[in-house]
Amino acid sequence: MVVIKPTPTALQFGAFEVDLKAGELRKQGVKVKLQEQPFQVLANLLEHAGDVVTKEELQKRIWPSDTFVDFDHGLHSAITRLREALGDSSESPRYIETIPRRGYRFVAPLKVIGHAPESEVVEGKNFPAPGDRLWTFCGSVLAGLLGGALLLGLVLTLNLGGARRWLRRESNPAIRSLAVLPLENLSGDPAQEYFADGMTDAVITDLAKVGALRVVSRSSVMRYKRTQKSVPEIAKELGVDAIVEGSIEHTGTRVRISAQLIRGATDQHLWAEAYDRDVSDVLRMQEEIARSIAREIQVKLTPQEQALLTKGRPVDPQAYELYLKGLYFWSKATKESIEKAIGLFRDAIARDPSYAAPFSGLADCYTVLGVSFGVGSLSSSQAASQARSAAEKAIQLDDTSAEGHNSLANTRLFFDWDWAGSEAEFKRALELNPGYSSAHHWYAHLLMAEGRINEALTESKRALDLDILSPVTNLHLGWHYVYSRQYDLAINQLLKMLELDPNYGYAYWYMARAYEQQGKYSEALQALGKAQGLLKGNTAVAADIGHVYAVSGDKAAALKVLTRLSTLPRGTYISPLEIALIYVGLGRKTDAFQWLDKAYVERSDLLIYVNVDPRFDSIRSDPQFQDLVRRVGLS
To answer: Same domain for 449 and 380?
Structure first.
């Protein structure tokens, strides 16, 4: 059959014209010298204007498999020559944008300026050659114009890439969940990784303020740093509709972020933008990125969300960098890294005392140092005042800081046992940032301590939904299953956690508690042994080993553990509650209550769980225990 195909012969962008039939590039009518391969790269990018063309696609089209060349070098050379011909640059692209780790995209408006009908005899199935997709598309536009769809035809002709994106949005499902992949550090300085990671976290935090979106939290997306996985693979693993990826370049006092939004299932590019700001204006830039993405996926912001995403203030550049370094070390979650983070947060505060974020970071550091399931190097009484004052200062400086309210909620929960005050702060944090995984996570702890089991599990699962690959959120759902006495579910959840990280000692620790309640003392001791090997120096694990020896009937072994714990080096902290649990297992109530009273005086954080911890079941009916529960405020 004969197909009449109206074919564009010339395209225009900026001062340039491309004659695709003649294979020529002209600038204001003057021919620009361009070799064959750079021209072929340009033709392919024009064909897919507005979309990402991957390196692999360019290789298949321009460097066939039987061509023996260094493809990466050849493509880089072709792109360099093409940019030179266009007067373009990778730092501030007007025409060709580099998409880190993936390929390139033509970003300028494109206009069709000439057509020539051609007759072509097609026998059987017609497979379009490179460039035919654009011709076919433009032909359809002309047909639409002739058929009466004038407006749509003009839009398609004048803005090919943008119109195609508009049409795709109309026909594709709405985006209600996304993940921000770690921004690629283009600064050329590995020491700037903290800045790239911190900015990734900041963009996630701002996007999570949009209640209509599910935004995957930092600890899950950081697993994809420098990944070779494709966007559809990552989107499937995280269960999201779209992916945001990009790069950051921090040079002197300037920050440049290039970001793009990609539909997860189809790898379709939906939006891209570059932002170039002074570091002092970086908070506003983060909010602008979040607003742009929300606008692109057509999520309607509430008045509160709109206000929260337009409140950014100038910040001292050095204070901001110190804060990001503090977050970097905080995320490593070791005693040494937390102590280093404290120093950096204090330096940031000294540099800019009106900046709220470092105060919240400081409060979280002291909380982690003072709770038994953290790195636990301080007693609750030692950590409480530092954590409380820092959290209160964060809110005093910025009452709209979800992080500040979450920090204060934790101090009121673990150190003050102020149940109503803590819950009010958690609810305020989640009102300000509905997608704040950490607030859901810690709120679940309060609900569990109060015996509100179903509510606690709902919050714990919500935290996991927002941070699906986080070891901590996976771990604590398993822990909450132990407290809700669903021991099989606890073990299964903790085994899933170990699939993420086989060397995560806390998972073995909490699994031992489930085994103990099932009467599987041998399995419990084996799991505790693994935990002790991985969590070196953790005195609470050592005490739990003594407790399991005691409840299993091995009194001699339990007493040996007590002796070792009584001779720990000076300055080594162990919670009195952990000693009490060994005596509970031995059936020595008088000793157990003496140590529980010491834990009360110290305000041990673990006392908040006495009403749900099954290890206290043997003394739960005792009047002394009921009095302890009353003093803690749980009855």
So the answer is: yes
Which amino acid appears at position 600 of this protein?
A: Y
Whether residue 441 is found in the same domain as residue 362 = yes
Averages of pLDDT over runs of 10 residues in the chain (635 residues) are 51 87 82 81 88 86 55 73 85 86 87 57 36 45 42 44 47 86 86 89 92 93 89 94 91 88 89 87 90 87 89 89 93 88 96 96 93 70 91 96 97 95 97 95 97 96 94 94 97 94 94 98 97 89 96 97 91 89 97 96 91 96 97 93
367 plus 494 within the same structural domain: yes
User: What residues have CB less than 8 Å from 190, skipping those under 6 apart?
Assistant: none
- 272 bridge partner residues: 260
* CA end-to-end span of the chain: 86
Residue 373: the pLDDT is: 64
Question: What does the CA dihedral 534, 538, 540, 546 come to, rounded to 10 degrees?
Answer: 70
Phi-psi region of 517 (alpha: psi -120 to 50; beta: other; left: phi over 0): alpha
Domain extent for 265 = 177-314
Write out the DSSP string of 518-545.
TT-HHHHHHHHHHHHHHSTT-HHHHHHH
Considering its fold, how many domains does the chain have in total?
4
Look at residue 474 in the predicted model and tell me its pLDDT: 94
Does residue 527 contact residue 511 with C-beta atoms inside 8 Å? yes
pLDDT of residue 171: 55
| pLDDT at 377 (0 to 100) | 65
- H-state helical runs in 63-186: 71-86, 132-147, 150-158, 160-171
List C-alpha distances in Å: 619 to 218, 277, 324.
42, 62, 47
What was the pLDDT predicted at 268?
86
- Residues with Cβ < 8 Å from 39, sequence gap 6 or more? 23, 25, 82
Q: Are residues 238 and 296 in the same domain?
A: yes
In a shared domain, residues 195 and 164:
no
β-partners of residue 278 are 254
- Final residue in a domain of this structure, among 314, 335, 362: 314
* Residues 158 and 218 reside in one and the same domain: no
- Burial letters 398-431, b for 16+ CB under 10 A, else e: bebbbbbbbbbbbbbbbbebebeebbebbebbbe
Residue with the two structure tokens 């407790």: 547
Same domain for 488 and 355 = yes
- How far is 530 from 230, CA to CA, in rounded Å? 35
Asked if 239 and 328 sit in the same domain, the reply is no
pTM (2 d.p.): 0.73
Strand partners, 106: 96
Q: CA–CA separation, 183 vs 206, rounded Å?
A: 15
